[in-house]
Amino acid sequence: MEKDTRVQLPQVTAEIKLDVKPNRAAVFVDGVFVGHIAEFTGIGKALLVAPGKRKVKISLPGYQTFETDIDLVANQKSTIKTELVPGGPPQGTPLPQ
């Protein structure tokens, strides 16, 4: 999977820390692939998004997809913490778009 190069960071942002296992899962914000959990986990790392309502989807073959809606204001920091449940589509199955 490749990040969408048309995506630009907003001037005013909100921050989402991701604490998700396994950390190799793909992260989608508003239907756009933005990276993998490991890129947004740890000290000084977070997912920067435009303020407002965002749909976050975390997906990994072999696990059930996790989806949540989050409504952030400018400069707000939030954390999404979950452990993906085994039993989703098997490896080699295309990820949902």
Describe this structure in words.
There is one protein chain. With 97 residues, this protein is an all-beta fold. The protein is 0% helix and 43% strand. The strands form 2 sheets. A 4-stranded antiparallel beta sheet has the order 3-2-5-6, with no helix packed on it. Strands 4-1-7 form a 3-stranded mixed beta sheet, with no helix packed on it. It is globular. The chain starts with 13 loop residues before the first strand and ends in a 14-residue tail after the last strand.
Trace the largest sheet across and list its strands: 3-2-5-6
Question: What characterizes the major β-sheet?
Answer: 4 strands, antiparallel
- Overall shape: it is globular
The poorly predicted ranges are: none
What is the beta-strand fraction?
A: 35-45%
Integer average pLDDT: 87
Features:
four-stranded antiparallel β-sheet; 97 residues; 7 strands; three-stranded mixed β-sheet; mainly beta; globular; single chain; 43% strand
